[in-house]
Design a protein that fits this description.
By secondary structure, the chain is an alpha/beta fold. The protein has helices spanning 13-18, 20-29, 45-55, 66-71, 73-83, 104-120, 142-149, 161-166, 171-177, 227-236, 255-268, and strands at 4-8, 34-37, 58-62, 87-90, 124-128, 136-137, 140-141, 156-160, 184-187, 189-191, 216-218, 241-244. The strands form three sheets. Strands 3-2-1-12-9-8-5-4 form an eight-stranded parallel sheet. Helix 6 (104-120) links the parallel strand 4 (87-90) and strand 5 (124-128). Helix 2 (20-29) packs parallel to helix 3, helix 5 packs across helix 6 and helix 9 packs parallel to helix 10 (227-236).
């Protein structure tokens, strides 16, 4: 199995904030083929593109806040197209905009518009799930309702395999379900069980306890996920890229050390 592997730069965000170019070089030196951005850390799209070209990293995608995209679809999406991104992802939707929320119908209209603008600029719009889309609405998962409501050419999946698992679904089966609509897959490992403090580990709450419950993100291959099966399913589903993401470091390691452990594991199983 040979998959192209990228790192979500959010995983090493403190390093990127301090020195984005140096961080990109380190990511390349660890063996990653590409990167997925979540912000440009004050740099211009042109500068980021130049650094990626010089270093030899493919800027495959970017997570862009949904409110930013709907406020200025042409401008924001043009920026990421100019970097050379093939994909742009909605990282999540607010509670009101999600399936079952009062603003879901309006969000669907915005997503169709964003998908069309992205397509016009040579990119594919993706949606990156968490576990909260795995609620049953009229007998259907909310995430499925989202994908059923938007044409596949305007919205593809970026299935986060950790959150699929935490949401109560089988990542392998779910990837296969979206065969042909799963160009980018998030590889994320974890230990523990779902609890009310999980999201404090994502980095959105600076007051996060060191160990909220027993849930902890782990480097790929160092948690409960069946990564060989997930990788095979990603390949069978037609994924072009797998993206390593670890929202918070663990095992007493730095974010960069965790990213290195993930890549070492992937190489050890022949990826």
């Amino acid at each position: 199995m040979k998959m192209l592997i990228a790192l979500q730069v959010y995983s090493v965000r403190q390093d990127a904030e301090a020195d984005l170019k140096g961080t990109l070089q380190t990511i390349k030196d660890m063996g990653y083929d590409g990167v997925e951005f979540a912000g440009l850390y004050g740099h211009t799209p042109e500068q980021v593109r130049t650094w990626c070209e010089q270093i030899g990293l493919t800027p495959i995608s970017a997570h862009v806040p949904y409110p930013d995209m709907i406020a200025d679809p042409e401008g924001v999406l043009s920026d990421y197209a100019s970097i050379g991104c093939s994909y742009v992802a909605i990282p999540w939707l607010g509670e009101e905009e999600r399936p079952g929320g009062a603003g879901f119908s309006e969000a669907l209209a915005h997503i169709r518009t964003l998908g069309a603008v992205a397509k016009d600029k040579g990119m594919q719009l993706l949606y990156h799930n968490h576990d909260f889309e795995f609620v049953r609405l009229q007998g259907v998962y909310g995430l499925d309702m989202l994908y059923d409501s938007v044409p596949s050419e305007l919205l593809a999946t970026e299935l986060d395999t950790c959150w699929v698992n935490v949401g109560g679904a089988d990542p392998v089966a779910y990837l296969r379900k979206y065969t042909g609509r799963a160009p980018v897959v998030h590889l994320k490992d974890f230990v523990g069980t779902k609890n009310e403090h999980m999201y404090e580990l994502i980095g959105t709450d600076e007051k996060a306890p060191e160990r909220p419950g027993d849930f902890e993100f782990r480097p790929v291959g160092h948690g409960v996920q069946d990564m060989p099966s997930i990788l095979r399913a990603a390949e069978e589903a037609g994924a072009s890229w797998c993206v390593v993401e670890q929202d918070s470091p663990s095992l007493g390691k730095t974010p960069m050390e965790c990213a290195r452990m993930s890549m070492s594991y992937l190489r050890s199983i022949g990826v």
